[in-house]
Cobalamin adenosyltransferase (Popillia japonica), 162 residues
Amino acid sequence: MLGISEELLCFLGIAKEHARESNHTYVDKLKRIQTLVIEIQTGLLKYKDNTEQNITHVHIKEIEDWIKAYEKELPPPENFIIPGGGITAANLHLSRAACRKAERYIIPFVRRSEIPQPVQVYLNRLSDFLLILSRLAAKLDKQNEHIYVPTDVGKKNNKKNT
């Protein structure tokens, strides 16, 4: 988990620096998230010794509140979003992918009670937040979001599945 969370920290750092250079208002939230990812790392090391995990429902609520606030600034997504929309948005998409990777990695550990469930929930909500921030970054940078449009093959496959 430590290697995967280091990857997430690095991607968040790149996204944060691009957001800072563009004077985006959420830079402080990215720094807070990086701090909490480090808290997750240290908490996991302590949790192995049966001490309490650092991530709680308070942290989950905080990120859910951020999601609600920023969603109000965006139109509903039309379909799947293709990563891009400017350098800041693209780096937030990378951060989201690393976050999803970390979440998938810890699922078996959560099921075996080796990692507390709030960590998984936090990573899940974090990936949603990073998607919202990527969309917001594209908007703030006056970049277009690239929306997935099925090819003819994709349309045929979608019809078979319905």
User: Anything to note?
Assistant: The radius of gyration is 17 Å. The domain at 2-161 is CATH 1.20.1200.10 (Hypothetical Protein Ta1238; Chain: A;). The CA atoms of residues 64 and 125 lie 7 Å apart.
